[in-house]
């Protein structure tokens, strides 16, 4: 019997999820060379990332192939929500200098820049003044020649939606390298100039930064469909959950077992039940008809049914999981 075709020998099981600390060694080993990080910055990154995991302004995800015995992580993406001062200093709205991620990492390491807090993000989000910068996206095998084919690109688009939608974004910017610009353009981003672009022509394409961006005004001039353009669709959250409630709901999107959630949230069984009860009470206060026949006590069969309804809702209404603090 002849061997099966290469594409049938193994079925990929791709999934995406938030980055955890045990992922860091593998992720940092995937940093793209075009970032141009100096040895000192590279050496300090593991320590820095230990602090960045879990920061509300650091949006970071991995795509992994569960069918692999090792090196499951196939892609890693990092986006930061930046305060207005940092946006101005980097000149993101104009023509910034290349190697933005490198400068941000250095600023974080020397203390000149700190990640935004949940409240600070909530204020800018509610005011419609929130700015994102995609620091980098890297994959072991990506692009038209990838053995994963379109499935990795499709999973990357799903990941982008889950991790970026639901914010009231003013602008989102993206620095990548010149050989991957097709992916940025295909996602709806527009090419923008770098102030030192002329100095970069000596670099090979795979090491040459390219800068993209999209503002709210530009997005409204695009036909709905591309992920970057759809990022600007937004409505205010209805329930305005607390930070601890939002964190529980966010993590429950990726692993719904209480046994997995309790150690991450650092709560007991009683504490986890209290968080869920608080979520149900807030929903019933603001929308008494939400649970229908499952309304009332959350004990017995009603609790799991309420949870199912809540998770189905927040998967579609991601704004409920984002900080929101009206001024």
Would you write up a description of this structure?
- 39% of the residues lie in helices and 16% in strands.
- The protein has helices at residues 24-28, 39-52, 84-90, 100-109, 118-127, 150-164, 181-186, 216-220, 227-230, 243-252, 258-265, 269-286, 302-316; strands at 14-18, 58-65, 73-82, 130-139, 169-177, 190-192, 209-215.
- It is globular and about 65 Å long.
- The N and C termini lie far apart (70 Å).
- The model is unreliable at 1-5 (pLDDT under 50).
- Tell me the radius of gyration: 21 Å
- CATH topology group of the largest domain: Aminopeptidase
How are strands sequenced across the largest beta sheet? 1-2-3-4-5-7-6
Q: Mean pLDDT, rounded to whole units?
A: 92
General form: globular
- CATH level-4 homologous superfamily of the largest domain: Gcn5-related N-acetyltransferase (GNAT)
Q: Percentage of helical residues?
A: 25-40%
Q: Separation of termini?
A: 70 Å
Number of strands: 7
Please report the first level of CATH classification, the CATH class of the largest domain. Alpha Beta
**Helical run tally:** 13
């Amino acid at each position: 019997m002849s061997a099966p075709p290469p594409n049938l020998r193994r079925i990929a099981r791709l999934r995406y999820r938030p980055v955890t600390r045990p992922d860091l060694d593998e992720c940092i080993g995937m940093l793209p060379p075009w970032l141009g990080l100096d040895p000192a910055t590279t050496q300090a990154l593991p320590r820095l990332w230990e602090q960045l995991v879990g920061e509300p302004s650091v949006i970071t995800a991995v795509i992994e192939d569960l069918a692999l015995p090792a090196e499951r992580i196939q892609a890693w993406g990092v986006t930061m929500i930046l305060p207005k001062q940092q946006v101005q200093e980097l000149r993101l709205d104009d023509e910034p200098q290349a190697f933005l991620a490198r400068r941000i990492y250095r600023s974080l390491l020397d203390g000149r820049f700190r990640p935004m807090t949940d409240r600070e993000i909530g204020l800018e989000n509610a005011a419609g003044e929130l700015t994102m910068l995609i620091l980098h996206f890297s994959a072991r095998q990506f692009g038209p020649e990838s053995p994963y084919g379109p499935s990795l690109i499709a999973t990357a688009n799903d990941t982008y939606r889950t991790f970026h939608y639901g914010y009231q974004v003013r602008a989102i910017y993206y620095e990548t390298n010149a050989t991957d610009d097709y992916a940025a353009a295909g996602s709806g981003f527009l090419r923008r100039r770098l102030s030192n672009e002329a100095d970069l022509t000596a670099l090979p394409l795979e090491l040459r930064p390219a800068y993209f961006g999209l503002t709210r005004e530009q997005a409204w001039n695009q036909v709905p469909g591309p992920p970057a353009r759809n990022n600007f669709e937004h409505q205010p959250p209805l329930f305005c959950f607390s930070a601890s409630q939002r964190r529980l709901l966010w993590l429950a999107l990726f692993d719904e077992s209480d046994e997995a959630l309790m150690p991450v949230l650092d709560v007991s069984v009683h504490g986890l039940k209290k968080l869920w009860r608080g979520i149900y009470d807030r929903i019933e206060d603001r929308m008494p008809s939400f649970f229908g026949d499952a309304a009332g006590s959350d004990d017995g069969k009603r609790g799991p049914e309420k949870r199912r309804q809540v998770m189905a809702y927040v998967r579609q209404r991601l704004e409920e999981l984002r900080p929101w603090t009206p001024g």
